Protein backbone atom coordinates (compact mmCIF):
# COMPACT_ATOMS: atom_id res chain seq x y z
CA UNK A 1 0.00 0.00 0.00
CA UNK A 2 2.85 2.40 0.72
CA UNK A 3 3.86 2.65 -2.95
CA UNK A 4 0.27 3.36 -3.98
CA UNK A 5 0.04 6.09 -1.33
CA UNK A 6 3.28 7.68 -2.48
CA UNK A 7 2.23 7.62 -6.14
CA UNK A 8 -1.05 9.32 -5.23
CA UNK A 9 0.75 12.00 -3.23
CA UNK A 10 3.23 12.72 -6.03
CA UNK A 11 0.44 12.80 -8.59
CA UNK A 12 -1.39 15.53 -6.68
CA UNK A 13 1.80 17.53 -6.12
CA UNK A 14 2.92 17.26 -9.74
CA UNK A 15 -0.44 18.26 -11.17
CA UNK A 16 0.25 21.97 -10.72
CA UNK A 17 4.03 21.70 -10.30
CA UNK A 18 3.79 22.37 -6.58
CA UNK A 19 7.09 20.65 -5.91
CA UNK A 20 8.79 17.33 -5.24
CA UNK A 21 8.96 15.34 -2.01
CA UNK A 22 12.09 13.24 -1.49
CA UNK A 23 11.80 9.61 -0.28
CA UNK A 24 13.26 10.56 3.11
CA UNK A 25 10.71 13.36 3.57
CA UNK A 26 7.88 11.08 2.43
CA UNK A 27 8.90 8.46 5.02
CA UNK A 28 8.86 11.07 7.77
CA UNK A 29 5.40 12.29 6.77
CA UNK A 30 4.15 8.71 6.39
CA UNK A 31 5.25 7.91 9.95
CA UNK A 32 3.42 10.93 11.37
CA UNK A 33 0.28 10.28 9.32
CA UNK A 34 0.12 6.65 10.47
CA UNK A 35 0.52 7.58 14.15
CA UNK A 36 -2.19 10.23 13.78
CA UNK A 37 -4.62 7.69 12.33
CA UNK A 38 -3.64 5.10 14.94
CA UNK A 39 -4.48 7.44 17.82
CA UNK A 40 -7.77 8.38 16.15
CA UNK A 41 -8.89 4.74 16.44
CA UNK A 42 -8.96 4.99 20.24
CA UNK A 43 -10.90 8.26 20.35
CA UNK A 44 -13.33 6.96 17.71
CA UNK A 45 -13.79 3.71 19.62
CA UNK A 46 -14.67 5.70 22.74
CA UNK A 47 -17.28 7.69 20.82
CA UNK A 48 -18.78 4.52 19.33
CA UNK A 49 -19.11 2.97 22.81
CA UNK A 50 -20.78 6.15 24.09
CA UNK A 51 -23.13 6.07 21.09
CA UNK A 52 -24.04 2.45 21.85
CA UNK A 53 -24.75 3.29 25.48
CA UNK A 54 -27.09 6.07 24.36
CA UNK A 55 -28.69 3.75 21.76
CA UNK A 56 -27.49 5.93 18.90
CA UNK A 57 -25.44 3.21 17.19
CA UNK A 58 -26.55 0.54 14.75
CA UNK A 59 -26.01 -3.21 14.57
CA UNK A 60 -25.11 -5.82 11.97
CA UNK A 61 -23.37 -3.99 9.07
CA UNK A 62 -23.74 -0.69 10.92
CA UNK A 63 -21.85 -1.99 13.96
CA UNK A 64 -18.95 0.48 14.01
CA UNK A 65 -17.78 -0.84 17.36
CA UNK A 66 -16.90 -4.20 15.83
CA UNK A 67 -15.04 -2.68 12.88
CA UNK A 68 -12.89 -0.36 14.98
CA UNK A 69 -12.36 -3.05 17.63
CA UNK A 70 -11.01 -5.51 15.04
CA UNK A 71 -8.61 -2.84 13.75
CA UNK A 72 -7.35 -2.14 17.28
CA UNK A 73 -6.93 -5.84 18.04
CA UNK A 74 -4.41 -6.09 15.20
CA UNK A 75 -2.06 -4.07 17.44
CA UNK A 76 -2.81 -6.06 20.61
CA UNK A 77 0.10 -8.31 21.63
CA UNK A 78 1.23 -10.31 24.67
CA UNK A 79 4.90 -10.54 25.64
CA UNK A 80 6.90 -11.83 28.57
CA UNK A 81 8.67 -8.85 30.08
CA UNK A 82 12.44 -8.73 30.57
CA UNK A 83 13.48 -8.65 34.25
CA UNK A 84 15.70 -5.80 35.41
CA UNK A 85 17.57 -8.14 37.79
CA UNK A 86 18.00 -11.35 35.82
CA UNK A 87 19.27 -14.13 38.04
CA UNK A 88 18.04 -16.45 40.77
CA UNK A 89 19.80 -14.55 43.58
CA UNK A 90 17.81 -11.32 43.30
CA UNK A 91 14.84 -12.71 45.23
CA UNK A 92 12.01 -10.31 45.91
CA UNK A 93 13.07 -7.37 43.76
CA UNK A 94 10.26 -7.89 41.22
CA UNK A 95 11.37 -5.29 38.68
CA UNK A 96 10.86 -5.53 34.92
CA UNK A 97 11.39 -3.38 31.85
CA UNK A 98 8.21 -2.12 30.23
CA UNK A 99 7.70 -3.19 26.58
CA UNK A 100 10.01 -1.35 24.19
CA UNK A 101 11.87 -1.88 20.93
CA UNK A 102 15.01 -2.95 22.82
CA UNK A 103 13.28 -5.38 25.22
CA UNK A 104 10.23 -6.97 23.59
CA UNK A 105 10.65 -5.60 20.05
CA UNK A 106 7.46 -3.52 20.30
CA UNK A 107 6.88 -0.04 21.67
CA UNK A 108 3.92 -0.04 24.06
CA UNK A 109 1.16 2.51 23.47
CA UNK A 110 -1.08 1.33 26.31
CA UNK A 111 -0.74 -1.63 28.67
CA UNK A 112 -4.03 -3.45 29.04
CA UNK A 113 -3.23 -6.29 31.46
CA UNK A 114 -0.29 -7.61 33.50
CA UNK A 115 -0.29 -11.25 34.66
CA UNK A 116 2.10 -12.75 37.22
CA UNK A 117 3.20 -16.42 37.26
CA UNK A 118 4.88 -16.86 40.67
CA UNK A 119 5.19 -20.68 40.78
CA UNK A 120 8.37 -22.34 39.45
CA UNK A 121 8.00 -26.10 38.86
CA UNK A 122 11.54 -27.00 37.82
CA UNK A 123 14.36 -24.56 38.48
CA UNK A 124 17.60 -26.47 37.83
CA UNK A 125 17.11 -28.58 34.70
CA UNK A 126 19.50 -29.21 31.79
CA UNK A 127 18.54 -30.73 28.45
CA UNK A 128 20.65 -33.75 27.41
CA UNK A 129 19.17 -34.56 23.99
CA UNK A 130 18.36 -32.35 20.99
CA UNK A 131 14.95 -32.89 19.42
CA UNK A 132 13.23 -30.21 17.34
CA UNK A 133 10.45 -28.50 19.29
CA UNK A 134 11.07 -30.68 22.31
CA UNK A 135 12.68 -30.44 25.73
CA UNK A 136 14.33 -33.71 26.70
CA UNK A 137 15.92 -34.20 30.13
CA UNK A 138 16.50 -37.82 31.18
CA UNK A 139 17.07 -36.74 34.80
CA UNK A 140 13.75 -34.90 35.08
CA UNK A 141 10.31 -36.11 36.08
CA UNK A 142 7.91 -33.67 34.48
CA UNK A 143 4.88 -35.68 35.58
CA UNK A 144 5.86 -35.59 39.25
CA UNK A 145 6.75 -31.90 38.94
CA UNK A 146 3.19 -31.25 37.79
CA UNK A 147 4.05 -29.84 34.36
CA UNK A 148 0.94 -29.30 32.23
CA UNK A 149 0.14 -27.98 28.73
CA UNK A 150 0.31 -24.21 28.76
CA UNK A 151 3.21 -24.00 31.20
CA UNK A 152 6.20 -21.82 30.32
CA UNK A 153 9.66 -23.18 29.51
CA UNK A 154 12.65 -20.82 29.59
CA UNK A 155 16.09 -21.60 28.18
CA UNK A 156 18.13 -19.17 30.25
CA UNK A 157 21.48 -20.36 28.85
CA UNK A 158 20.56 -18.84 25.49
CA UNK A 159 21.61 -15.29 24.74
CA UNK A 160 19.16 -13.70 25.06
CA UNK A 161 17.08 -16.22 27.08
CA UNK A 162 14.21 -17.73 25.09
CA UNK A 163 10.72 -18.86 26.05
CA UNK A 164 8.30 -21.50 24.79
CA UNK A 165 4.94 -22.93 25.81
CA UNK A 166 4.36 -26.59 26.68
CA UNK A 167 2.09 -28.21 24.12
CA UNK A 168 2.19 -31.82 25.33
CA UNK A 169 3.76 -33.77 28.18
CA UNK A 170 5.10 -36.65 26.08
CA UNK A 171 6.40 -38.59 29.10
CA UNK A 172 8.28 -37.99 32.35
CA UNK A 173 11.43 -36.83 30.56
CA UNK A 174 10.17 -35.15 27.36
CA UNK A 175 7.94 -32.20 26.52
CA UNK A 176 6.64 -30.98 23.19
CA UNK A 177 7.02 -27.19 23.13
CA UNK A 178 5.92 -24.31 20.90
CA UNK A 179 9.38 -23.11 19.82
CA UNK A 180 12.68 -24.78 19.00
CA UNK A 181 14.68 -23.14 21.81
CA UNK A 182 17.08 -26.03 22.60
CA UNK A 183 19.38 -26.34 19.55
CA UNK A 184 22.32 -27.76 21.56
CA UNK A 185 22.85 -30.13 24.49
CA UNK A 186 23.57 -28.70 27.92
CA UNK A 187 21.30 -25.66 28.06
CA UNK A 188 19.93 -24.80 31.49
CA UNK A 189 16.20 -24.28 31.77
CA UNK A 190 13.38 -23.73 34.24
CA UNK A 191 9.63 -24.27 33.98
CA UNK A 192 6.98 -21.89 35.28
CA UNK A 193 3.42 -22.96 36.05
CA UNK A 194 0.81 -21.14 33.96
CA UNK A 195 -1.99 -22.72 35.98
CA UNK A 196 -1.23 -20.64 39.08
CA UNK A 197 -1.43 -17.01 37.99
CA UNK A 198 -2.73 -13.70 39.29
CA UNK A 199 -3.50 -10.44 37.54
CA UNK A 200 -1.70 -7.35 38.79
CA UNK A 201 -3.46 -4.00 39.11
CA UNK A 202 -1.75 -0.74 38.17
CA UNK A 203 -1.52 1.95 40.85
CA UNK A 204 0.29 5.28 40.92
CA UNK A 205 3.66 5.65 42.63
CA UNK A 206 2.09 8.00 45.18
CA UNK A 207 -0.79 5.66 45.96
CA UNK A 208 1.36 2.57 46.52
CA UNK A 209 2.99 4.22 49.53
CA UNK A 210 -0.34 4.75 51.30
CA UNK A 211 -1.55 1.26 50.33
CA UNK A 212 1.52 -0.38 51.86
CA UNK A 213 0.94 1.41 55.18
CA UNK A 214 -2.14 -0.69 55.92
CA UNK A 215 -2.34 -4.47 56.16
CA UNK A 216 -5.89 -4.26 54.78
CA UNK A 217 -4.97 -2.43 51.56
CA UNK A 218 -1.39 -3.56 50.94
CA UNK A 219 -0.83 -5.65 47.78
CA UNK A 220 -0.65 -9.39 48.46
CA UNK A 221 0.23 -12.57 46.58
CA UNK A 222 -3.47 -12.94 45.70
CA UNK A 223 -3.97 -9.29 44.76
CA UNK A 224 -0.64 -7.89 43.53
CA UNK A 225 -0.14 -4.40 42.14
CA UNK A 226 2.44 -2.63 40.02
CA UNK A 227 3.75 0.85 39.47
CA UNK A 228 5.36 2.23 36.36
CA UNK A 229 8.23 4.69 36.46
CA UNK A 230 10.16 5.66 33.33
CA UNK A 231 11.19 2.34 31.73
CA UNK A 232 10.64 0.05 34.72
CA UNK A 233 7.66 -1.76 36.22
CA UNK A 234 7.78 -2.58 39.95
CA UNK A 235 5.62 -5.46 41.18
CA UNK A 236 4.23 -5.51 44.74
CA UNK A 237 4.34 -7.04 47.29
CA UNK A 238 8.11 -7.14 47.61
CA UNK A 239 8.64 -10.21 49.79
CA UNK A 240 10.26 -13.63 49.85
CA UNK A 241 6.83 -15.28 49.56
CA UNK A 242 5.89 -13.57 46.30
CA UNK A 243 8.75 -13.67 43.82
CA UNK A 244 8.39 -12.72 40.15
CA UNK A 245 11.94 -11.89 39.14
CA UNK A 246 12.58 -14.22 36.19
CA UNK A 247 11.82 -14.13 32.49
CA UNK A 248 8.46 -15.83 31.95
CA UNK A 249 7.01 -14.78 35.31
CA UNK A 250 5.45 -11.53 34.10
CA UNK A 251 3.38 -11.21 30.94
CA UNK A 252 1.94 -7.96 29.63
CA UNK A 253 -0.89 -7.60 27.13
CA UNK A 254 -0.66 -4.21 25.46
CA UNK A 255 -1.39 -2.17 22.38
CA UNK A 256 1.79 -1.60 20.42
CA UNK A 257 2.57 1.32 18.17
CA UNK A 258 2.44 0.49 14.45
CA UNK A 259 5.80 -0.18 12.86
CA UNK A 260 7.45 2.78 11.20
CA UNK A 261 6.63 2.73 7.46
CA UNK A 262 9.51 3.01 5.02
CA UNK A 263 9.32 3.34 1.25
CA UNK A 264 12.51 1.74 -0.05
CA UNK A 265 13.98 2.20 -3.50
CA UNK A 266 16.89 1.78 -5.86
CA UNK A 267 18.35 4.82 -7.57
CA UNK A 268 18.35 4.84 -11.35
CA UNK A 269 21.14 6.72 -13.10
CA UNK A 270 19.68 9.96 -14.41
CA UNK A 271 16.16 9.02 -13.34
CA UNK A 272 13.70 8.86 -10.50
CA UNK A 273 14.09 6.43 -7.58
CA UNK A 274 12.35 3.14 -8.30
CA UNK A 275 10.32 1.34 -5.64
CA UNK A 276 12.06 -1.80 -4.31
CA UNK A 277 10.28 -3.72 -1.58
CA UNK A 278 13.02 -6.36 -1.45
CA UNK A 279 15.16 -4.08 0.72
CA UNK A 280 15.72 -5.38 4.26
CA UNK A 281 14.38 -2.21 5.88
CA UNK A 282 11.19 -2.06 3.78
CA UNK A 283 8.05 -1.65 5.86
CA UNK A 284 4.51 -1.16 4.56
CA UNK A 285 1.77 0.73 6.40
CA UNK A 286 -0.02 -1.29 9.06
CA UNK A 287 -3.32 0.44 8.45
CA UNK A 288 -6.42 -1.20 6.89
CA UNK A 289 -6.78 -0.80 3.13
CA UNK A 290 -9.79 1.49 3.55
CA UNK A 291 -7.55 4.04 5.29
CA UNK A 292 -5.37 4.57 2.21
CA UNK A 293 -7.34 7.69 1.29
CA UNK A 294 -6.86 9.17 4.76
CA UNK A 295 -3.14 8.48 4.65
CA UNK A 296 -2.82 10.28 1.32
CA UNK A 297 -4.72 13.31 2.59
CA UNK A 298 -2.76 13.56 5.83
CA UNK A 299 0.59 13.24 4.03
CA UNK A 300 -0.50 15.95 1.59
CA UNK A 301 -1.17 18.24 4.54
CA UNK A 302 2.42 17.78 5.72
CA UNK A 303 3.68 18.25 2.17
CA UNK A 304 1.77 21.52 1.82
CA UNK A 305 3.45 22.88 4.93
CA UNK A 306 6.87 21.66 3.76
CA UNK A 307 6.74 23.25 0.32
CA UNK A 308 4.86 26.30 1.62
CA UNK A 309 1.86 25.76 -0.59
CA UNK A 310 -1.22 26.41 1.48
CA UNK A 311 -3.46 25.27 -1.38
CA UNK A 312 -2.14 21.72 -1.05
CA UNK A 313 -2.91 21.56 2.68
CA UNK A 314 -6.33 23.15 2.19
CA UNK A 315 -7.17 20.70 -0.61
CA UNK A 316 -6.20 17.72 1.56
CA UNK A 317 -8.21 18.96 4.55
CA UNK A 318 -11.27 19.64 2.41
CA UNK A 319 -11.11 16.23 0.72
CA UNK A 320 -10.61 14.43 4.04
CA UNK A 321 -13.72 16.08 5.46
CA UNK A 322 -15.88 15.75 2.34
CA UNK A 323 -15.00 12.40 0.78
CA UNK A 324 -14.41 10.13 3.76
CA UNK A 325 -15.29 11.80 7.06
CA UNK A 326 -14.14 9.98 10.16
CA UNK A 327 -16.52 9.05 12.94
CA UNK A 328 -15.19 11.95 15.02
CA UNK A 329 -15.99 14.38 12.22
CA UNK A 330 -19.55 13.11 11.95
CA UNK A 331 -20.35 13.97 15.56
Summarize this structure briefly:
The chain has 331 residues and is an alpha+beta fold.
Fold and architecture overview:
The chain is of the alpha+beta class and 331 residues long. It has three domains: 2-74 and 259-330, no CATH class; 76-118 and 197-256, no CATH class; 120-192, Elongation Factor Tu (Ef-tu), domain 3. The protein is built from eight helices and 15 strands. The strands form three sheets. The chain has a seven-stranded mixed beta sheet, with no helix packed on it. The protein has a six-stranded antiparallel beta sheet with strand order 4-9-6-7-8-5. The radius of gyration is 25 Å and the shape is globular. Mean pLDDT is 82; it is low at 322-331.
Amino acid sequence: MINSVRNSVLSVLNKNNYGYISPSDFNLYAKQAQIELFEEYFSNYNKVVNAENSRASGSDYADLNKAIGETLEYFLVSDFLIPFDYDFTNVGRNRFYIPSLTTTGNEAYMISKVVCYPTILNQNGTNDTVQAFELVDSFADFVTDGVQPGDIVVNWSASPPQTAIVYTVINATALQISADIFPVVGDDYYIISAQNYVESEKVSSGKIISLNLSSLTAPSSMFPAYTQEYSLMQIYPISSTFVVSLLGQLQATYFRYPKEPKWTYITLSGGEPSFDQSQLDYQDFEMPQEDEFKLVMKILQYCGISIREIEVAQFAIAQEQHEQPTFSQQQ
